[in-house]
């Protein structure tokens, strides 16, 4: 990744605007702390780092005081890195979760078709004369749903108006003029639906207005596009997110992050994939 950014700087012949479109406050650290520190170190080729967060941190959790502390810790992290412009779209947790319901609706439809296809594959073609035709129908139906997911054209069945958020993002990007963008991958990294929702919104833009944008995501496997990082330094930033009041509970969030998301929190490399 360091070569990609350095070569992009040479190609553009100017300092780069680098933008991160992410679901939550802390995603920038878990998935991209190593990269952010690399950008800080190479400020001679970086004009500005932009972090755009989707969810309103104060509605992520019912404990308002805890969320205020998390927001303060986020600000400490980005201030320590420096040269970061931060914007929160303040999309409420309810709206984001409604969008996630749409993802589940789409996925349930595809899963049902896949189950039917699996059953049909176990049957001999001679058992039902029209079995080949039925398979073909299911495959066509599955592709139709996939297209609906990509284009969000399930009219009357969506919980939120995606055009609003797509246009918001495009309006922001028109001002930022990012040379390279980082966001979530299609798996939502570890399956987080809110991460998947951000991916889908970017996917819509990438298919049209952002078709020429250079976009990367975290990779869920080792790739050649990687960055050697200081794992201990990354964990220092992650630890800044601990916000429990008592000494006994102080490192719970940090320890859970190391245990549950070790691929990103305890790795000597950050791996990336081109957006697809």
Topology:
Layout: H1 2-12, E1 16-22, H2 27-41, E2 46-55, H3 64-81, E3 84-91, H4 93-121, H5 131-151, H6 162-176, E4 180-182, H7 188-191, H8 193-206, E5 215-218, E6 226-228, H9 231-239, H10 252-260, H11 262-265, E7 269-274
Parallel strand pairs: 1-2, 1-4, 2-3, 4-5
Antiparallel strand pairs: 5-7, 6-7
Helix pairs in contact: 2-9, 4-5, 4-8, 6-8
Description:
With about 280 residues, the chain is of the alpha/beta class. It folds into two domains: about 1-95 and about 160-230 and about 265-275, Rossmann fold; about 95-150. Helix content is about 55%, strand content about 15%. The protein has eleven helices and seven strands. It has helices at about 1-10, 25-40, 65-80, 95-120, 130-150, 160-175, 190, 195-205, 230-240, 250-260, 260-265, and strands at about 15-20, 45-55, 85-90, 180, 215-220, 225-230, 270-275. Strands 3-2-1-4-5-7-6 form a seven-stranded mixed sheet. Helix 4 (about 95-120) packs antiparallel against helix 5 (about 130-150) and helix 4 (about 95-120) packs across helix 8. The longest helix has 29 residues, at about 95-120. The two termini are about 15 Å apart.
Looking at CATH, the homologous superfamily of the largest domain is: LmbE-like
Query: Residue share in helices?
Result: 40-55%
Could you say what the CATH architecture of the largest domain is?
3-Layer(aba) Sandwich
The profile of the biggest β sheet is:
7 strands, mixed
Beta-strand residue fraction: 5-15%
Q: Which stretches of 5+ consecutive residues score pLDDT under 50?
A: none
The SSE order reads: HEHEHEHHHEHHEEHHHE
The structural class is alpha/beta
For this structure, the CATH topology of the largest domain is: Rossmann fold
Strand order of the largest sheet: 3-2-1-4-5-7-6
Number of structural domains: 2
How far do the termini sit from each other? 17 Å
Number of helices: 11
What's the gyration radius in Å? 21 Å
């Amino acid at each position: 990744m360091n070569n990609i950014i350095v070569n992009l700087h040479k190609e553009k012949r100017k300092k780069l605007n680098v933008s991160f479109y992410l679901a939550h406050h802390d995603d920038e650290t878990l998935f991209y702390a190593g990269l952010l520190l690399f950008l800080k170190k190479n400020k001679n080729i970086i004009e500005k780092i932009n972090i755009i967060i989707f969810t309103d941190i104060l509605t992520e959790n019912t404990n308002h005081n805890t969320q205020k502390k998390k927001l303060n810790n986020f600000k400490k992290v980005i201030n320590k890195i420096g040269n970061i412009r931060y914007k929160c779209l303040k999309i409420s947790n309810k709206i984001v979760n409604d969008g996630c319901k749409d993802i589940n609706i789409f996925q349930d439809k595809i899963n049902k078709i896949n189950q039917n296809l699996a059953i049909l594959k176990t049957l001999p073609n001679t058992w039902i004369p029209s079995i080949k035709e039925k398979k073909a129908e299911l495959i066509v139906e599955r592709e139709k749903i996939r297209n609906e997911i990509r284009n969000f054209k399930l009219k009357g069945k969506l919980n939120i108006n995606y055009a609003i958020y797509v246009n918001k993002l495009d309006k922001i990007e028109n001002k930022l003029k990012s040379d390279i963008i980082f966001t979530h991958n299609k798996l939502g990294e570890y399956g987080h639906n809110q991460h998947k929702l951000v991916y889908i919104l970017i996917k819509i833009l990438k298919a049209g207005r952002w078709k020429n944008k250079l976009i990367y995501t975290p990779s869920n496997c080792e790739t050649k596009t990687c960055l050697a990082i200081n794992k201990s330094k990354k964990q220092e930033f992650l630890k800044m997110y601990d916000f429990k009041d008592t000494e006994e509970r102080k490192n719970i969030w940090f320890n859970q992050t190391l245990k549950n998301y070790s691929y990103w929190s305890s790795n000597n490399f950050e791996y990336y994939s081109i957006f697809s």
